[in-house]
């Protein structure tokens, strides 16, 4: 089915343009015509259209535990004490709970400027750690939530075998994650079936971390789907780096690069604590640094060396990870502000006499699209018709256009001031509200009241 859309102003690969006519066929843009009259367009969009932002890293179920980990642990609080809270929370979840929580997170992603998601999915089994009759039952819950909300999906079933470096046994809190190789292959087959009916969905693979798999698992996992994305957590925490050095004699990213050839299929999540050689090696490989600035700040991870990485030509994107706050603009703002706080300078991601917001949005769209393995992240022929529009009447951007409006939307609004969100040519958010917001929220509320009462 072919339709025509008209955008009052839009960010195209070559820059901002006005009166942009899009021809969309089966969810993909087939033609882009700037300076076109709106006559004949099926849908017309006011405001300023931006390519939809890919969310390259999320654990959807964690939206349900947002805010539950802010009490200080003893003797101190860290990522590792946060992880214990997470283990206790997921002990309660069944597939229907996961679907309800994921749908709520996905609605918030769409209302927050994300139009696609790479879901790093490691919650597989029942409460006792046994596989469901359909081993991909939890993956089906994620796919059903994406179907309900209209969010584009790259599903990344996670291989998780061990509890720590040195192939240490898994602990009780990890029992719902663990699969050996034969079960993981069945999980991939079931996950492929789960997303089969989703429009333009993609399946990738994800060794959880160097802590959770054997080194020879890395190449094996990547070979199972040789043309699809490969994501891995790496070098998020200083103790992780110290453990890697103690047990293997090498830093995590150094160990990863010595074990498998990195390329554009790979997305290294967090990659916070890097040597200069590791940082430049990732940049030269074509792999994507998957940054989750709000979660990394929440967990006290540290600050990714974004400026020198970008100067080396490194690709990056952003994700909402633990989903404590879901807003594409807020992730980009936190990324830029972290660099400013460390270096005590301003507008660090921008080129000289250029827009910081524009530089961040375009880079994160490109890196996120690569990490998702899909033709997204640009309003251009051959790309999925995914875009968002900024509300031109919002106080933060009144009277502004182009990069000035985008800068203000990211750095001067409490949340990204969105009006419309379109995914695959289909409108899913209008006037800032998702079309299924009320029904999704009601189901989420029932699940959360029951879980928290328990």
Explain how this protein is built.
By secondary structure, the chain is of the alpha/beta class. It has two domains: 2-51 and 379-434, Urease, subunit C, domain 1; 53-372, Metal-dependent hydrolases (TIM Barrel, Alpha-Beta Barrel). 37% of the residues lie in helices and 22% in strands. It has 14 helices and 17 strands. The longest helix is centred in the first third of the chain and has 17 residues, at 95-111. The chain is globular and about 65 Å long. It starts with a strand and ends with a helix. It is an enzyme of class 3 (hydrolase). InterPro entries: Amidohydro-rel (IPR006680), HutF (IPR010252), HutF-like_N (IPR055156), Metal-dep_hydrolase_composite (IPR011059), Metal_Hydrolase (IPR032466), Metallo-dep_hydrolases (IPR051607). GO terms for molecular function: formimidoylglutamate deiminase activity. It comes from Bosea minatitlanensis.
